[in-house]
Structures are given as C-alpha cells and as structure tokens.
Write a structure and sequence with these properties.
The protein is built from two helices and 13 strands, in the order H-E-E-E-E-E-E-E-E-E-E-E-E-E-H. By secondary structure, it is of the alpha+beta class. Strands 1, 4, 5, 8, 9, 10, 11, 12 and 13 form a nine-stranded antiparallel β-sheet that branches. A four-stranded antiparallel β-sheet has the order 2-3-6-7, with no helix packed on it. The protein is globular. About 10% of the residues have low confidence.
Length: about 240
C-alpha cells in the first residue's frame, strides 16, 4: 500500500511540474518594445533628458544614456541596449520628438543631424536580453524622423548586418525597412545591429519584437510531466 501511495504521489508531482512548464511555454507570446512616439516605452533609469548628449544638443524630450546604456522592462522581458562605434566612445539616445524616430547612436564630433546609426563611424546598437529569446523583427526609421519607405534629407535607411551572441560573422545582411519581420526567428541572447550602407544614410530603431524561449530545465520538466500523464492514462486503461 505504501509503495502504491508513493507511486501516486510521484506521478502527481510529474504531472504538476509538466503542466507548470507547459503553461510557461504557452505564454511565450511576442513582446514589442517601442522606442518611438507615440506610446514609447521608457527606460527604467540611467538617462538625462534634453541638453547635451556626447557633444551634440538634443531636444528637451529626448533621452541620453549616462554611461551604461538604457534598460527596458516590458511584460517580464528585460533588455539592456548599448551603442558602439569604431572608437568605442558612442552614446545611445532615445529620440522621442517628433514621432518616427527611436534609438540612435551619437558619436563625438557629430551634429544633431547625425542622430541615427551610420556606417562611416562604424556605429551599431547592441540588445542584451540576459536570457535566450527569439528575435522576430524590428521597425526602422530614417534620420529625418520618417518611415524608411520615404527618403528624408539625411538619406536612405539602407542595410544592416545582424550579429548574434558575439559572433564575428554576420547572420545576414538585411534591408532596414518599416516593420521588418524575419521569415525565420533568430534565437540568441544578444543581437547587434550594424549599419552597412549607404555612407550618406542611416536609421533609428523604432521597435524590437521578441519572444522568450523556454530554458532547458523547463523543457525537462515538461517531459517529466508528459511522462506522468502517459503513465496515468495507461493505469486507467
């Protein structure tokens, strides 16, 4: 009788753990973090508003990092976003005014019209989610605070390379367009977006869309739970 009760208890634990793991995988819905107005998501701290950003002046509603990038938290997903360039002295700004702007890179010596990601300075933006996610897409805007579908006075949005988890080789070269959705999601923890062309163009990143990926331990729990369910069904039959 004791062994039978123990078996029942173990099966119950397996089923419960599996159902909890399954609930976690079902809830892995896409999350879009928006960096442009209207309805922009704001960082949790570590920024200044208006004034000077690494040299150039920015408008009163724009945000500039204070040295550690900008951190965002939405729907349980957190991301640290940083800027880089050839000389490793870039700052990240969140361009909020007017609409159709977003995250941009400011390098020393640039002017306020360079509030974008540009190839001639070797500029890039790194998204670090801290845990594995599926990258589903981006929204891009050009330096003139317009959609990439229309060319502004600061040139076309152009193209970018995507680097995943610090890899030296690019995962591909893509067009920086409005509402870019990848045909196949890219899985990773960090994603670096580097502008590649044209030299007289650039872009701001208006949003990023990702979905969380179940950890291996969660998948193991799911397997145990399914095994418990299977055993229970066999017993009943």
């Amino acid at each position: 009788m004791l062994n039978k009760n123990v078996r029942k208890a173990v099966k119950g634990v397996f089923v419960t753990l599996g159902l909890l793991a399954l609930a976690g995988t079902v809830n892995a819905v896409p999350v879009t973090i928006t960096f442009q107005n209207p309805n922009a998501d704001l960082p949790t701290g570590g920024f200044t508003t208006g004034g000077n950003c690494n040299g150039p002046s920015i408008s009163g509603s724009d945000l500039c990092e204070t040295g550690a990038g900008l951190n965002y938290l939405k729907s349980g997903l957190s991301v640290n976003v940083t800027a880089d360039n050839t000389d490793n002295d870039a700052f990240l700004m969140q361009d909020l005014a007017p609409s159709n702007s977003g995250l941009a890179v400011i390098s020393p010596g640039e002017t306020s019209s360079d509030d974008q990601v540009q190839v001639f300075s070797g500029e890039s933006i790194l998204f670090d989610f801290g845990s594995r996610v599926d990258l589903l897409g981006f929204d891009f805007n050009n330096g003139s605070d317009r959609n990439c579908s229309s060319t502004g006075t600061e040139g076309d949005c152009g193209f970018f390379d995507l680097f995943i988890d610090g890899a030296s080789g690019s995962a591909g070269n893509f067009g920086a367009i409005d509402d870019l959705a990848f045909g196949t999601a890219f899985s990773g923890t960090t994603f670096r977006v580097a502008h590649t062309s044209p030299n007289d163009g650039g872009f701001a990143i208006g949003s990023v869309t990702v979905a969380s990926v179940p950890e291996p331990g969660t998948l193991a729990l799911l397997g145990l739970g399914l095994a418990g369910l299977s055993l229970t069904r066999r017993r009943k039959s």
